[in-house]
Design goal:
- The chain is an alpha+beta fold.
- The chain is 43% helix and 27% strand.
- It is built from 17 helices and 23 strands.
- The radius of gyration is 56 Å and the shape is rod-shaped.
């Protein structure tokens, strides 16, 4: 075959950037142009006469023979090869081979292009496609996806959307996305959505849609517009997360907060939290109101010295210090000025410790107890008046006996004074008799003075008296002085068991005497006119408590009224003989002494038991022992 203009062809082959390779039917290299030699780092003479698999391991005699046969049958062949340069590095190549005849000899003429750049681009594209597919798969699995065309007509939805909303794809495809709208949002909400996405911007919000069964489903939704190659919006895709449970919990929290706020408002019980590290606190709206400040006031900015007295502040610091030290809660009542008036707040706090055990925070409550404090004060005043009224009633009942107790000594005094007057008119004066008479007068006067002093003491209110260490025997004997004569004149025997002279209790003596006198009066009324009629007073010394038992000859209290006798205004006496306050007031006195007044139901007769501790706790006590 003649080659036209051989010099021009030779010049082209030598200067082209493409690789040119000639091989014979045995795979022997006949020619390699300079561009190929340079890429392979070989000289032309190092390649001529060598088999082609020297530069391409993919070829071998068998593969070459198959390619040669294909080339002969088709006349041309396209393949992708990897040539190796002298250093062993791979060079990806695209080969276009043709069968030509030169001087009667068949030759494979191959034009080769370095495909490194193309293959790198293809690799990147393949990687990007793979990553895009992986991302799309992950997005589909982890999110809820809905697609519409530019007119808002649903075109597709992933399985997550269909499962949550209860639709099949056939049921929803081709319908307007408006069918999913709920009444939770107004028209302006949806108008903003449409305007945003049609302007090509991403729109995001929390959206409530309606499922197939009409139930509400909340989404955290992003709608992304997609443009065509011509720049026109052709698709919208919403990518969402189901936040229904979160919204329900948030709604419940709001309801709980509203209920808590209402409860705090009703009870006037606010809450607070104080961070010791930050030296900042948080107070609920009710707590702010309790302190007398307008809503929204930041109490961290308040000058507390103008709200709470220095004494209360110092006490609060001490209580908090002890609370953290002992790891227990503290409680205190403080006094503040609120709207120009005195108010009382009850504070309860609990210490909170950090992970390392260090003091971290204080949480607690602050309650406005002003009304309660005032009510308690009034109640105590009323109770004191009732106690005094009951006492006066008891004194009235005992007046006859007391008069008898005083009249007898007065008769003795009168008789002795008359005899002394007669001795003054006599010529003979018996000094021994006079001494005896005057001694009798003095003794009798002292007896009257003791009775009168007892009456004065008993009539004294006593509720505000300090607790005093008092002899139990003295209290019992002083109380009996009021009624012993009355009992005996009515034929009622009264006996007192042996009481240790050194047995003492912390008490308000007047109040304990009133309880004992009430019990004795009740026994007197219960057994009067019956035979035999008797009353026993016994004192039992326990380790830490003292029991004073008043037992009478009565048959006991019937079960149907036993639970009622301590109630105010309940009485079994005839109209006009009792107010029904005696036992109720006596019970209150016992409880004020941290004790009890109970009916002994195991006794076959009627027995009431007053039990009080020997030592009072948390009370201010006069340490001077009463005479």
């Amino acid at each position: 075959m003649a080659i036209p203009n051989p010099k021009l062809l030779e010049r082209f082959i030598e200067t082209t950037s493409d690789f040119v390779l000639w091989m014979d039917g045995e795979g022997q290299i006949l020619f390699a142009n300079p561009a190929l030699c340079k890429a392979l780092q070989y000289a032309a003479e190092d390649l001529i006469g060598q088999p082609v698999w020297k530069i391409d391991p993919q070829w071998n005699p068998i593969v070459w023979d198959l390619n040669w046969q294909t080339l002969k049958s088709q006349g041309s062949l396209r393949t992708e090869q990897f040539f190796r340069n002298k250093e062993g590095d791979k060079i990806p190549c695209d080969l276009t081979s043709n069968l030509i005849v030169v001087d009667g000899k068949e030759i494979c003429y191959s034009v080769i292009k370095d495909s490194s750049s193309r293959r790198e681009q293809e690799h990147r594209l393949h990687t990007a496609l793979r990553e895009a597919n992986q991302f799309r798969f992950a997005l589909t699995q982890g999110t809820i996806i809905l697609s519409t065309n530019a007119k808002g007509i649903i075109t597709s939805a992933n399985d997550s959307f269909l499962k949550i909303m209860g639709f099949t794809l056939d049921e929803i495809r081709g319908k307007s996305a408006r069918v999913l709208r709920s009444a939770k949002h107004d028209l302006a909400f949806y108008e903003n959505q449409v305007q945003t996405i049609k302007a090509g911007r991403v729109w995001r919000s929390e959206v409530c849609n309606l499922a197939k069964d009409g139930s509400e489903v909340w989404f955290d939704m992003v709608i992304v517009p997609f443009r065509s190659e011509f720049g026109e919006i052709e698709e919208f895709m919403s990518i969402s997360y189901d936040i229904t449970e979160k919204k329900l919990q948030a709604d419940q929290i709001k309801k709980n907060e509203a209920a808590l706020s209402d409860a705090q408002k009703i009870s006037r019980l606010g809450s607070f939290e104080y961070d010791l590290g930050l030296k900042k606190g948080w107070w609920s709206p009710q707590a702010v109101e309790n302190y007398g400040f307008p809503p929204g006031t930041d109490l961290n900015l308040v000058d507390w010295s103008k709200v709470i007295s220095e004494t209360d502040q110092a006490l609060m610091k001490e209580l908090m210090h002890n609370a953290f030290k002992k790891r227990e809660r503290f409680e205190n009542q403080i006094q503040i000025s609120k709207a120009g008036k005195t108010a009382y707040l009850n504070l309860i706090g609990t210490p909170v410790f950090g992970e390392a055990g260090q003091p971290a925070r204080v949480v607690g409550t602050v309650q406005d107890v002003t009304e309660k404090v005032i009510a308690d004060r009034l109640l105590k005043e009323q109770q004191a008046k009732l106690i005094h009224a009951s006492k006066m009633s008891t004194l009235g009942q005992m007046a006859g006996g007391v008069a008898h107790e005083i009249n007898n000594p007065l008769a003795i005094i009168h008789g002795n004074a008359t005899l002394l007057q007669e001795f003054l008119n006599s010529d003979e004066i018996d000094k021994g008799y006079i001494q005896k008479s005057t001694d009798r007068i003095i003794s009798t006067v002292e007896r009257i003075a003791k009775i009168v002093q007892g009456l004065r003491t008993f009539a004294h209110g006593g509720a505000s008296d300090p607790f005093t260490t008092m002899s139990v025997a003295d209290m019992v004997q002083e109380t009996l002085a009021f009624c012993e004569s009355r009992f005996r004149s009515s034929g009622i025997g009264i006996e007192v068991g042996k009481i240790a002279s050194d047995l003492t209790v912390d008490c308000r003596p007047n109040e304990i005497s009133q309880v004992l006198l009430n019990l004795l009066n009740n026994s007197f009324d219960a057994v009067q006119g019956n035979a035999p009629a008797w009353v026993h007073v016994d004192v039992v010394d326990h380790a830490e408590r003292v029991e004073i038992r008043v037992t009478d000859s009565g048959p006991g209290i019937a079960d149907e009224i036993a639970d009622k006798i301590m109630e105010p205004f309940f009485t079994t006496k005839e109209i006009g003989k009792g107010t029904g306050l005696g036992l109720s007031i006596s019970t209150g006195i016992a409880e004020a002494h941290q004790g009890t007044l109970v009916l002994d139901r195991n006794c076959k007769n009627t027995r009431l038991v007053l039990q009080i501790p020997k030592k009072q706790q948390n009370t201010k006590k006069d340490t001077i022992k009463a005479a």
